[in-house]
Amino acid sequence: MMRNLPLKNLKQYTAKGKLYSYYRPSNKRIMAEYGTVEFYLEFERADQNWKNKNSKLPRTDTLGYLIEEYKKSNKFVNLATRTRKDYNGYIDYLQPIADVPLVEIDTVFIRRLRDKALEKHYIRYANYVLSVLSAIFSYGVEYGHLQQNYCRNVSRIPRDKTKKEVNRAWSENEVKAMLKHSPKHLRLPIVISLETGLRLGDVLSLRKNDFKNGLLTKLTSKTNFKVECPITKALRKELDDAPHNDTVFVCCSSLGRQWTLDGFQSSFQRYKKVMLGNGLIESGLTFHGIRHTIGARLKEAGFNNSEIAIVLGDKTENMGKTYSRDSQNKNLILKAQNILKNLAN
């Protein structure tokens, strides 16, 4: 027994000769015998848990704390702007479990989280939640917050092959229709992507001085891959015919201002609805599908996955496989452009 000390927020009453003790703010009953060391320690835990629960800062042993630490790290800060935006969306999805202690997270927990995301959303969303969480946990392992990355023990959900593929390749007729009917401020980004394989974010960030000495040189934002593409006659003509703007950027809106990613996507979606309504394209067409279009054409022409990855500005062969489903080597780029020369004309 220890000497009874006055404890703030201790509430007690006696019923039928028995003393009951509670931590007042949470009304949590203290089960240990009053006056013992165990009682004092249990009361302190109740007090600390209450303070942690009501603190604006997450506890240092929770998923929420690890997420905040990851977001301050270079691993997150150095991601491409669009990737960070996507990650933040999935991190917001994880907020309801931010208070879960890291010691309670294991393979079963991750698998259930993946399955719940699938129930509420769709396959790609559930797999992306898993990918973001894996990136966070990899950081956690590296910096001593976790012993292992349990996400690596949980498989991705395979795509439903009965459903249309996301970012499918454009058909030849769709390419022709989009180029024939699109306004110039939408047509130029489409042509650049068809000619170079660049992602939309990289296309919209192209500056006029990226085009020099017959070459388009661009360091891609997602893979940090240096792309060098010869400027074809078709691309040169498109650049010359583009509306003049007073910015340093090549692609601008109809108002002559630099495109934002969201702004372009909104305009592109509106244009797609018109095209779809007129029966000129099929449903499921996306701007990113241009890269799949290029990958498919090159695969048909005998390019291997590594070669496709180089043309598309990717570092890994796996990305080449992705885009071939449905610069470092200028000769390879020229060969690809020769195959694709009729695509944007």
UniProtKB/TrEMBL annotation:
Belongs to the 'phage' integrase family. GO terms for molecular function: DNA binding. One of its GO terms (biological process) is DNA integration. This is Tyr recombinase domain-containing protein. It comes from OCS116 cluster bacterium. Keywords: DNA integration, DNA recombination, DNA-binding. InterPro entries: DNA_brk_join_enz, Integrase-like_cat_sf, Integrase_catalytic, Integrase_recombinase_N, Phage_Integrase. The keyword DNA-binding applies. SUPFAM superfamilies: DNA breaking-rejoining enzymes. Residues 165-337 form the Tyr recombinase domain. PANTHER family: PROPHAGE INTEGRASE, PROPHAGE INTEGRASE INTS-RELATED.
